[in-house]
Amino acid sequence: MSTRPNRRSRGRAARPLRPALRSLGLSLGLALALGAAAAATPPLAPLAPVPSLARIGIDGIGADRLTALEADPELHWWLELDRVLVVLAPPGALARLGRDFEVELLAEPPGSGPFVLVRDRRRDAGDDGFAEIARGGRWTLGRLRAEPEAPLPAWPVGGGELVPSERAPRGGHRFAFAPNRVLARAGSNLFPAGEEPEPLAVDPEIVDAVDVDRWFAAVSDLAAWNRWTRGTEIHEARDWLVARFGELPDFLVTTQQFTVPSPTTNAWNVLATLPGLGSGARRVIVGGHYDSTSESPAVAAPGAEDNASGCAGVLEMARILAVWRPAATVVFACYSGEEQGLYGGTAHAQSVVNEGLASSVVLMLNMDMIGYTGDSDLDVLVETGSTHAALLGRFQAAATAFTGLRVVTDTSPGGSDHVPFVNRGMPGVLTIENDYGSYPHYHRTTDLPGALTPVMAENILRMNVAVLVELAGVPLFADGFESGGKGQWPATTP
Ligand SMILES: [Zn+2]
Questions:
Q1: How close is the Cα of 289 to the center of ligand 1, in Å?
Q2: Which of 34, 177, 397, 415 is positioned for an S-S bond with 115, CB 3.0–4.6 A?
């Protein structure tokens, strides 16, 4: 389905109906014909029009028109899923909306079960009694073919902190249907139509310092180890990270030990702190987990995309800020124990709270799976809690100014290391490529560097560097406080 917005204003002459509308017109015509036939027979009580399920294309219509559309009193219900608004509405209302938007009527999904919302449903989930209606961001709306055996939970569960298992269900996590909510909003709809976000105060030269070859070399180094939290090779990856951050001038590199239960396993975060040149009142955390898993983690868990890609992204951003020193203190963090249930991120978030520093954190930027796209649409998902939703606009501004990315946003965080920060009141933001649900090597022994599409990581890193630089306060046009060794950090190491 094309979801290009129909920007035609209400005042102009009508254009020919699009195919979806023509089919709607046909069915209305049929209904009228049937009505005429009925008129010849004894009078019947008028039937209320049966509401239809439809998708409305909303890409780029703007926050103001979107808000008005969702408030339309004739909608029985609506759900916003990135570029489409799924609605249940009477035919007359759909015909009216079709004058301003692309409207596509949907067939009634098969089955007798309830509608459900599914989080993180994989494209290869197979037939598990679920009929898909629409997808957007991490969410899928669908219908069960039969009643579920137990009542479905309501989202969010436990503050949004899903505990991922080492064998995450490919069919995702199912929740009770709850309409009239934004599940995923396109970045193009964060602002009113025609209104540009405030430009970022960022020196473009810093964004251009992102070196995707250097990033890919780090991914390849990390993917050479089995980084399963319960294995032994992950210790070599930990030590490699300590050494790489240790090469950067003025970084204070530490490890943080914690345990992962069942069975109790020791694990370590790697934390590299770059002291701010300013008063030290602001802190930024840039994180991504370095542990990985697979269907046979004791045998192999290369985790190139999940998540050498994000961890190498943390290192790449550290290498850039080693040259363009920020006013804020920045902690670059590589976490372990993520795949068993966010244990590393939780240990770090709690230690920030314990040290009394939580209120000084202006951004916790999490990168998890940033190096893959399944198609030419460079879509990135940016996710944070509703408290800090204003940050999403900064990512959209950065993406517009410095990348070819299409941003999709979500304000119900779950399933990665930003969640423990969000749950402790800090502005945790996840950036993840939006095709991760179709990445064929997810949690497989085949998640190798050759499966990646580096252009995706390059764009996400450019967006993230821009936001980081703005929030951490790197002075404009300062081209290196240190030695002027921009971009000269080694891409590979002995
Ligand atoms: Zn991950």
A1: 7
A2: 177
